[in-house]
Amino acid sequence: MSEERKRTAEEIAADLARTRLELTRTVNELSDRLDPRTQVEAARTAATEKARSFADDVRTGEPKAVAVAGGAVAFLGLLIVAAARGRGR
């Protein structure tokens, strides 16, 4: 059986410093992930990328994208007509 060697005070202090640094990094990373401003910015970036991708698909004539865009335009047209009729009463 091998006996464990006792660690020196310097080794223990170095281990504690290393552990403290790892914990600090972990807490900072979690704090960044949970920060509402960071989450809003990530959502904004994702929405912008999706909108650009959708616009590119419409420009290139991708059938599903064109159908969705046409449906959105038709829906907006119906809303405008309904609003105009509601004001006329």
From TrEMBL:
Keywords: Membrane, Transmembrane, Transmembrane helix. It comes from the Bacteria. The chain crosses the membrane at residues 65-84. Pfam families: DUF3618. This is DUF3618 domain-containing protein. It comes from Georgenia ruanii.
